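Researcher: Batch entry, complex prediction.
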Amino acid sequence: MKIKDHSSRGFNAMKGVLLTILSLLCVLPFVVIVSGSFTSNIEIITNGFSLLPRGFTVEAYKTIFKTPEDILQAYKMNFYYTGIGTALGLVIITLTAYVISRKEFKYRNTVSFLIYFTTIFGGGMIPWYLMYANVLNLRGTTLAIWFPALVTPFLVILMRTFIVGAVPDAVVESAKIDGAGHWRIFWQIVLPVLGPGLATVGLFQALGYWNDWYRSSMFSTSSQTWSLQFYLYDLVNSTQAMRQMAQYANVNTSDLPTQSVKLAMSVVATGPILILYPFVQRYFVSGITVGAVKG
Amino acid sequence: MHVAALGQNSPLNRRSVTRHWSICLAAAISAILLLMLLPVFSWIRLNQTDALFDIMKLKSSAVKKLDSQYSIFTFLSFVQESKQGLLGLWSFVLLLIAAAAAVFHLWGCVLFLLRNKLAEKKGLLAMYSRFQCGMVFSFLLAAGTLGLILFANKNYGLTGFLPGIPVYVSLGFSVVGYLASKRMEKAERIIRRDHGFIEEVRRNWILFLFLIPCFVFFLINNYLPMVGIYFAFTQFNFRDSLFASPYVGFKNFEFLLRSEILHLTTNTILYNLVFIVVGNVLQIFFAILISQVANRHLKKTSQTMIFMPYFVSYVILRVLVFNMFEYDVGLINNFLASIGRGKLDFYNTPAYWPWIITIFYLWKNLGYGMVVYLATITGISSDYYEAAQIDGASIYQQIRYITVPLLKPTFIILLLYALGGIMKGQFELFYQLVGKRHAVQHHRYL
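Model: C-alpha cells for the complex:
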C-alpha cells in the first residue's frame, strides 16, 4: 500500500529527520565500541570514550591474539553449538511443523496447544536446571549446552505458517490420490519448496545459538565448553582474566589495555553477526512478515 | 449426517442417545469418582501405628498431630508432620493426578447436563473424551495410591499403611465407566464418521513418528521440570538429596512473603507493563513513519539500522551500557565534563536504572516490533486509502481511521507473546545490565 502524499514539504522533512535520528541512535553505540577498541587504554582513561578513535592503535587486538588459544576454543565451541543446534533443531522443527500443518491429522490442535503451553507456563529455572544437572547428569557436557534450545515454540509456529503458505492443500491432496504417503509428500513435495522457510527459521535458530551465554554459565564445569558470549562475559567481568592474559603475553600489568581489550573482544565476538547482518537481514524480515501477516 | 435424520426407530436417534443407560451409567460413575476425591473420604489408613511411628523415630509431640486416616489431598500433611520426605514427591504427583481427574470429571458432568443441546450441534464426542480422561486419571490415581502404599510398607518393613475403600471403588468403577463411555462413543463415531486414537495411529503412524523427537524434547525440557515445582515445598538438603528432603508445606512461601517478594513482583509487572505499552506505541509510530517515507533508499537503510540492535547478545548490551554510563570514562560523563557540568555516578545511584533498563530494552526490541507492524501495514489493501482520499480524508485521518484499527490483530498477537514473557521476567536483560555485583565490580574495574 502507499498513501498518496498531499502533505507539505516540511512534514516530509520532519519524517526524514526523525528516522535519521532514530537510525543513528541505534547504530552509534556500535560505533563507540568499534572506535574504543582501536583506542589505547591510556587515552580512554584520560579522555574517556568517544565516537571516533583518537590515536588509532591495534594494541588491544594484539593483546587478544597474543594468547589466541582461549578465544579460538570459544570460537570453535560457538561454531559447534550453532552448527549442531541449528541443523538438528531445524530437522525437529520442520518435522513437527509438517505434522501440525496437516489438516487430516486429528490431534493437530492438541499438539499445537501442548507446544504453545510451554511458553506461558513452566516449572521455572531451578527444576529445569536440576533436570539436566542432577537427573540426566549432563553438567559439564556440551550436550547440556546445545540441547535445551533445540526447539522454540515460536519457530515451530512460524515454520507451520511457511509450510501452509508454500504448499497448497490441493497439491498434497492430488499427491495422496496418486498414492504418495506422508514420507514421500514431506521429502518430495514439501521440502523442495520450503527453501525460504528453512533459511529464515535456520537463521533465527543460529542467531539464538550464537548469542547464547546463559546455558554456558549454567552447565559448564570448565572453560573448555564456554560459548563465545560467555567467554566475553567472563572477560568483561573479571579483571583476573586480564591479569592472567598479561602474564602470558609478558605485558606490564600497569599499562594493561583493560578497557580497550574488552571492546576489542566485543568486536571479535559480534563480528560475524555484524558482517553477515546486511546479507541475512531480509530473511529475518521475510520471516517476521510471514509470521505477522498469516500467523 | 445429522443425528436426528436417522429417524425414531434407530437406536441412535437424538432422544435415545441422550437417555441411553450406558451414558447415564458413565455419568453416574463419573459423579461418584468425583465425590470420592472429596477430602472426607480416607484413601490411606494407618495400621500398627505404634510400631510404625517407632520406625519413623517420631516424638510423641509429633505423633499427636497425626491422624489415623488421610484423604488424597491431606496425605502431604502426614508427610510433613512425620518428616517422611521419601513419600513426598510420590504423594505430590498423586495430588496432581487427583486434580486432573477432578477437572475432567467435572467437565464431563457439566457436558452431560448440557447433553440435549450438544447432541443437536457438535455431538457428544467431547463429553465422552472428558469422561474417558477422567476415568483414566481416576484409575491412575487408585493404582498410584496402591503403589505408594506398597512402596511405603516395603520401605518400613511392616504393613503400616492400608488402602481405604475409595481406592478399590475408584479402581473398579473407573474401568466400568471407561467401558460404558467407550461403548456409546463407538456408536456415535460411526454416525459422525470420526475415528479413535488407535485408528489415527494406524492411518498416520508416520506423522506420530515425525513427532517423536519434538515430544522427547518438550518432555525433558518443559514438562518433566514442571513436576519439580514440588521442590518449592521442601527444605532441600544434600544429605537427603532430591527425593527425600523433608516436605515443609508453605513454609518457604511464608519466608518469601516476609522478604522482598511483593516488591519484586510489582517491579516485574510494572517493568513489563511499561515495556509493552511504550514499546508498542513506539513500534507502531515508527512503522507508520517508515511506511510514509517515499524515498526507497531512506526507507531501506533506516529499517536496516533500527533492526540491528536486535541481533546483538545481552553481553554486548552490558558492555555498551557500561561504556555509556561509567563514572570515569563513560561517554555521557565524558560529555558532561567537556561542557563543564558535574559528573553523574550512575552505577551507584539506583534511581537512574529503571530509565536506563527501559531505554535499552526499547532500543534492542524496537526494530523487531517495527518490522512486524510494517509487514501488516504493507499488507493493507490500497483500496481503503484510495477510497478515503476520494472522500477527502487527510493523511492524519487515514492513519487514525484505517491504519491504526487494522493493526489491532497484530498488536494482540504481540501482546500474547509478551504476556508469556512476563513469567520469564526478561532475566537476561536484568542480569546483564544490573547483575548481582555489578555496581561494586565495575567501580573498581582497574
